[in-house]
Specification:
This protein is of the alpha/beta class. It is 59% helix and 12% strand. It has a six-stranded parallel β-sheet. The chain starts with a helix and ends in an 8-residue tail after the last helix.
Length: 237
């Protein structure tokens, strides 16, 4: 009998400790059925994870944070009153201890790059993940790791390869080529650029042809867009 009592006490104490150490999460998504699906899956199969709140809008979420503490927020990108990107940016400024796991069907390269620049801890796709992967991501992030779904990781890899290639290409631009790019952005014609640089219009066209070849593009518009997107030209600077 004594052994049995101790055994029961041990099990009860263990359960209490386990409950105290559960990972606390908030779900921010404007689809009720999606939130219900996550809650059902988590509460049924993953007792170490505890949902402490839900919100369908950015405003409701920030109101919730005034009264609830959590370890991780599951954040959608598309919300009725705010972008998940802007919400993530505010969270990192106001609640830096709250970790962010984006779970969204919005997986465009620009969106992922923006989120990486903000410093989110994880990103998985609604379309290519399941409750078990979600739980795995939550646990990994709670332990201090980053977690990205395979499809998201593939996009991130392409982003870094493209950046590396861009850095290599732009480092090869001569001073004259950079000047041509800048003057094209300002809308100058080949003759006007030639006058500014004290070269012939034919040399201007030659510089542009070299730039097009290096970038693998075919038009001045693409060249200018590349220059703006990659900081060669700084608007308002």
């Amino acid at each position: 009998m004594v052994y049995s009592v101790k055994k029961i006490y041990f099990r009860t104490s263990f359960c209490r400790i386990k409950k105290m150490n559960r990972i606390k999460i908030i779900i921010v998504d404007d689809h009720n059925l999606f939130r219900l699906g996550i809650r059902t899956a988590i509460e049924t199969h993953h007792p170490d994870i505890h949902i402490v709140g839900e919100a369908g809008t950015g405003a409701d979420f920030f109101t919730l944070l005034k009264n609830v503490t959590a370890d991780i927020v599951l954040l959608d990108i598309m919300l009725p009153d705010a972008s998940g990107i802007e919400i993530a940016r505010q969270l990192k400024a106001q609640y830096p201890e709250l970790k962010i796991l984006v779970i969204s069907s919005e997986t465009h390269t620009k969106t992922i790059e923006d989120m990486l620049n903000i410093g989110i801890e994880g990103f998985i796709s609604k379309l290519n993940s399941d409750p078990n992967q979600l739980a795995e991501a939550i646990r990994a992030i709670a332990r201090g790791f980053e977690y990205f779904g395979k499809d998201i990781a593939d996009i991130i890899k392409r982003i870094y390869i493209a950046k590396k290639k861009t850095k290599e290409v732009t480092s090869e631009f001569s001073d004259s080529e950079r000047s041509v790019i800048t003057y094209c952005f300002e809308g100058l014609s080949a003759k006007m650029i030639a006058d500014r640089l004290c070269i012939s219009p034919r040399t201007v066209h030659w510089h542009k042809a070299n730039i097009f070849h290096k970038l693998g593009i075919n038009s001045t518009l693409e060249m200018v867009q590349f220059a703006v997107n990659n900081g060669i030209i700084k608007i308002g600077g």
